[in-house]
Amino acid sequence: MKAVVPILTVLAVIVALWYAAAVWMNAPWERDQAARAGTAITFAQLLPLTMVQERPVLPAPHQVAVGLWEGLAGQAITSKRSLVYHGWVTLSATLLGFAIGTTAGVLLAVGIVHNRAMDLSVMPWAIASQTIPILAIAPMIIVVLNSVGVSGLLPKAIISAYLSFFPVVVGMVKGLRSPDAMQLDLLRTYNASRAATFWKLRLPASMPYLFTSLKVGIAAALVGAIVGELPTGAVAGLGARLLQGSYYGQTVQIWAALFTAAFAAAALVALIGAVQRVTLRRMGMAR
Amino acid sequence: MIWLVFAFGFWAAAWALNVRLAASSLMRSRAGRLAVPAIFGITLLVVWEGVVRGLAVPGVILPPPTAIAARIAAEVPTLWLDFVQTFVKGALSGYIMGCGAAVLVAIAIDRSPFLQRGLLPVGNFVAALPIVGIAPILVMWFGFDWHSKAAVVVVMVFFPVLVNTVAGLAASEVMQRDLMATYSASYWQTLWKLRLPAAMPFIFNGLKIATTLALIGAIVAEFFGSPIRGMGFRISTEVGRLGLDMVWAEITVAALAGSAFYGLVALIERGVTFWHPSQRH
Amino acid sequence: QDAVTLQLKWVTQAQFAGYYVAKDKGFYTEEGLDVTIKPGGPDVAPVQVLLGGGADVMVDWLPSALAAREQGAAIVNIAQPFKSSGMQLTCLKESGVATPADFAGKTLGVWFGGNEYPFLNWMSKLGLSTDGGDGVTVLKQGFNVDPLLQKQAACISTMTYNEYWQVIDAGITPEQLVNFNYTTEGVATLEDGLYAMEDKLADPAFEEKMVKFVRASMKGWKYAEENPDEAAMIVLENDDTGAQTEAHQKRMMGEIAKLTAGSNGALDVADFDATVAALMGGGSDPVISKVPEGAWTSAVTDKALN
Amino acid sequence: MMKDRLNMAGPVIEARGLGLTFQTGDGPVHALKDVNLTIGRGDFVSFIGPSGCGKTTFLRAIAALEQPTEGTLTVNGMTPEQARKSRAYGYVFQAAGLYPWRTIAGNVRLPLEIMGFSKVEQEARVNNVLQLVDLEGFGKKFPWQLSGGMQQRASIARALAFDADILLMDEPFGALDEIVRDRLNEELLKLWARTGKTIGFVTHSIPEAVYLSTRIVVMSPRPGRITDVIDSPLPKERPLDIRDSAEFIAIAHRVREGLRAGHSYEV
Amino acid sequence: MMKDRLNMAGPVIEARGLGLTFQTGDGPVHALKDVNLTIGRGDFVSFIGPSGCGKTTFLRAIAALEQPTEGTLTVNGMTPEQARKSRAYGYVFQAAGLYPWRTIAGNVRLPLEIMGFSKVEQEARVNNVLQLVDLEGFGKKFPWQLSGGMQQRASIARALAFDADILLMDEPFGALDEIVRDRLNEELLKLWARTGKTIGFVTHSIPEAVYLSTRIVVMSPRPGRITDVIDSPLPKERPLDIRDSAEFIAIAHRVREGLRAGHSYEV
Ligand SMILES: Nc1ncnc2c1ncn2[C@@H]1O[C@H](COP(=O)(O)OP(=O)(O)OP(=O)(O)O)[C@@H](O)[C@H]1O
Ligand SMILES: Nc1ncnc2c1ncn2[C@@H]1O[C@H](COP(=O)(O)OP(=O)(O)OP(=O)(O)O)[C@@H](O)[C@H]1O
Ligand SMILES: Cc1ncc(C[n+]2csc(CCO)c2C)c(N)n1
Ligand SMILES: [Mg+2]
Ligand SMILES: [Mg+2]
């Protein structure tokens, strides 16, 4: 709660700066237009014009707010013009991709921790895999999956999984290895099996790491879903809105979609944060 | 079919070899530790080649590694040109500016808990803005040459580094700070002699994450407008021309450059944070 | 009912009105076809989708189709609903471009991804190099007309039916612009045609399907030409992104009708040869190196239109 | 839980020419060298010696947590590894090392779960040992809700819960203040007297070693060797003020001398 | 370094009705209550008491690391804050707390850098104090390359390096074995005798407190109060075996009784 005032202050400053930047960045166009029309324009005349441009370089905050409001609340949520509808399209791919990515990430991490050959061989390649520009291979993934008859939600989800598995692997490997030597030795004195060690020590010990990487992972999954929407022919979803927006130069639409995506990401991260708090409190790891 | 059988046979054999290697005493040598991932990588390539040939996948969908290698060999000058444009001009300059700015801002807001509480949540929100949405805007703002790519990279690397640095600056222990208090050390002395060194492991965490982000950011930004060179440009145009071997050649360069960049930062980290337990096993 | 999947070259817009009209008006159903229309976009290479089996037939431009064919993708033009080219280079007068002679030293925006061939061909005809220096500086244009509005380029590529109007809508008057139409400059190439896989066409059943498809599509095109406003509304309904506007689509439909007007769907061999000649004459770096064989067939249109 | 109850007559722990060398970055570290020691059933053996002399290492070797590089070591006539597999010992580490995600009762229950005790049996034993260490009523608390001393006692309860014959304790009372320490010393002695367990006990405190043990093993560093083994003539019943007796002071003196000899400085 | 050398006659540390309450999630914790104490120049004062009785808190309040909530506290006649600004004390924390990115010499040099000593002076002082704590030759090593005892000594060297008049030490020898501890006790006494510093010293060990101090402050917990202040009649020269003297044992007994009274249990 004590974060509210600072956040509002920071937001107010950002909005003020944003307005200033909007004037500054949108002004050249008005000046050019005036020059083309052969007239002179004063700053006072120019100021209101920069707030209401059709294709602003930087839309003013209220323009974005109106765009957001119309997209989110101004339509039936089943309408194709509703950001809720597009948000849901993206969200469903995000959630599926996140589920796939997390499962894969956790399984890989378990393998890496328990098998030395996997540890040595998989990790460097997992890092390398993340340096591949996803936008470049996304179309190929879609085409390849298409050719084996998979289309619809799944290809997008797989791209989203590709982006989200990595933080989960890294975090979980760290987490599953986080028990210290003494905690492990204790179980050795009980002659505990590998399975018992996993369930009673490694897994509970990895929980804080798991949740941290889940937070990173779900944000990555959302980006993946948006990227995955571009090569599916941009049919629906926030990615499609972004793309169509830039194709037709509808700056406000881009910004509205962008903010919706960021809100969605923030909400998902907050959700995981809530689950984390409840779980860790249950486990007695939060105080 | 033969190819498929060969590919999976090779897979099984290489895996068995790796399992033995990993358990052997060779693992104490540097060469031994490099051998295992190398064998794994070679296995991936062999399986890829085998599957592509075995299933007769058309080259315009997925070219075999041999074709990609041939293309790399044939196109070194182009690949180099693209590498300089995207990596050196776009990614590297953006990385340096973004990381530098993030560290400075972190130090600035570190003095004010008020700013920290206000800025970090907003910062996290901004960090969640998808790059595919930001890139076209930044291309519109900064032009189509490398400046806009650098700007995209700055936006992408800024917050991971900021968040990590802020966490790092808070990482010195109470007792270590109290020690400084008993010396009645000034803010800058404390920052310089205690908090920055203590923050280094965190800062490097951010810097490592930022390496892969920087490269991806620079490449992706080129999809939204670029001069007619650069890795992203080449990838998007060659996809349209069905030059998939060239696309994969660029991807290979990207993966190599990205891994090398990551490795370099990890190496510097090892030098700077030699004292941290995670570096000493 | 036979299933047919059509892969478009670009997003849902009036450029593809004929297909949406045919679907919406039931022309396909009348032929016993169940047609799925997949929109494209900047990240979709239609040839790849076709080769990958994701579609039976696609809309593509002839230059990129021929280039793909040289790469070993056995695709064949089966119909050509677009008679004329709609591509042009649009310049701001204030940038000092009045004739092609003024291009030297300027920055020109170009679409890549298979759409760059006519431009490259034109430049080599003009004797202008495209790697900067004393020639022109080429900018890989993104999705929109911003480079012109932001004055990052002197000229950008536009389609008569789309981007040109976006420039106008942005507040620039036609008098402030100079247009270089590819047809007028004698470098026009064939645009939106229908393509299918050569090996699949060898199957008479598939060929039959294509015949039905082309027949119904052309019916759709002619209906769209005659009822442009209705066609535009049909397109609008099929736009799942909800981003298109009525005014823009209606105007686009009007312009598209001008391009399809001269075609009954059959490929005019003279146009084909002109495109091939243009592509082969591309100076030191021709788009295609040898005259393509079997890159088109009249078999489908012959059956469809008689 | 079928523990090996053979060899009731033979020694419980027997080390012969035991050596243990760690291979490290800058050359080998000889942690133990030529250690010979026999511990009989029911002995309470303390290990004392300067920092780094190998006390922990020796205890860990007995518990099969380290692999000796020379000599032989048997536990109940078996190899340490076999003894570990037959769950012959409870081990108390220097730090409490409770799992933070388990309650105190959950921590004490951990070995019982792993060894497959029945639920009823688990409950009974947990209650029993928590009472033994004076922690009844704290079972539902999490470790961080307890003071350091209470945590230490919980870790002792955990080692006692499954009733191993051998108890290995590595400076269990190191972090406690003198008064609490005295009290726990008394409790430990009572437990030992009642159960007849064999106990190996590492400490830095000379009075503690003398007060608790039947035998005191004095070690010296680099390489770790046994320099003196002192059999205590003190009776099994030991009130706290036995520490002021002349006998006690004499033994303590001998231990101190032994220690000092080992400290051929620098530290 | 111009330290305030006024008030040579007055008390160095004076607490009057001192109280300190922590506000925590579940209510206030009274760490100190109504503490009255006067420490004169050259005194060696030990603080002893059960865990959590406020020893550390009191030391920290003197060093201006905590803010008292009641009463007055003066150091050299100034507020603790002013005294801290005039760099009046060296503080040895319970754990060594060396900066791992600095060598041992670098750690000892740290306060000298901060206080702006010249390079030459820095070198001389570092060598000097490292020798004092028997660590010459280890200056170039990093903290983790040293045993716990050596680290502890390095942290003492660090506090001695800049020669503050007041030395505050919080269980500095807690992690050391008895022999090393004895030796460092002797060294500390010698240093104190030589320099005439005023020393505040927290310990859990009764013999240590008795052996070192001119005054022993016994504290009891919840809220932390001073229950006894014992002036030691022992001479300034104290060989180790003074600990077997009847006088010593009597004082130790009194301290133990005071402590036990404070322990109104449970632990
Ligand atoms: N894993 C290890 N690798 C290398 N050397 C080790 C390892 N463990 C212990 N040593 C070394 O072995 C020697 C004995 O260590 P050990 O822990 O047994 O000492 P200790 O007697 O328990 O000391 P303390 O009283 O400090 O606990 C020391 O010199 C130590 O540095
Ligand atoms: N920052 C704090 N916030 C709340 N309570 C505190 C804080 N620091 C200390 N306390 C409480 O104040 C009391 C005194 O603590 P202090 O550390 O001074 O004890 P101590 O005598 O040094 O004990 P020990 O022997 O364990 O070091 C304790 O009850 C402790 O829980
Ligand atoms: C990356 C990219 N490629 C092409 C176009 C332009 N474009 C859109 S539709 C069309 C004709 C075929 O439909 C063309 C050339 C673009 N805007 N962006
Ligand atoms: Mg030890
Ligand atoms: Mg304390």
UniProtKB/TrEMBL annotation, chain A:
GO terms for cellular component: plasma membrane. Pfam families: BPD_transp_1 (PF00528). GO terms for biological process: transmembrane transport. Residues 83-276 form the ABC transmembrane type-1 domain. Keywords: Cell membrane, Membrane, Transmembrane, Transmembrane helix, Transport. It is found in: Cell membrane. The chain crosses the membrane at residues 88-113, 125-145, 157-176, 209-232, 252-275. It comes from the Bacteria. It is a multi-pass membrane protein. Belongs to the binding-protein-dependent transport system permease family. PANTHER family: ABC TRANSPORTER PERMEASE PROTEIN HI_0355-RELATED, ALKANE SULFONATE ABC TRANSPORTER-RELATED, MEMBRANE SUBUNIT. This is ABC transporter permease. It comes from Fertoeibacter niger.
Automatic annotation (TrEMBL), chain B:
One of its GO terms (biological process) is transmembrane transport. One of its GO terms (cellular component) is plasma membrane. It comes from the Bacteria. Gene3D superfamilies: MetI-like. Keywords: Cell membrane, Membrane, Transmembrane, Transmembrane helix, Transport. The keyword Transcription regulation does not apply. InterPro entries: MetI-like, MetI-like_sf. It is a multi-pass membrane protein. It is found in: Cell membrane. Residues 101-272 form the ABC transmembrane type-1 domain. The chain crosses the membrane at residues 32-48, 86-109, 121-144, 150-171, 202-226, 246-268. PANTHER family: ABC TRANSPORTER PERMEASE PROTEIN HI_0355-RELATED (PTHR30151:SF20), ALKANE SULFONATE ABC TRANSPORTER-RELATED, MEMBRANE SUBUNIT (PTHR30151). This is ABC transporter permease. It comes from Fertoeibacter niger.
TrEMBL record, chains D, E:
Residues 15-246 form the ABC transporter domain. GO terms for molecular function: ATP binding; ATP hydrolysis activity. Keywords: ATP-binding, Nucleotide-binding, Transport. It holds the Pfam family ABC_tran. The keyword Transport applies. Belongs to the ABC transporter superfamily. This is ABC transporter ATP-binding protein. It comes from Fertoeibacter niger.
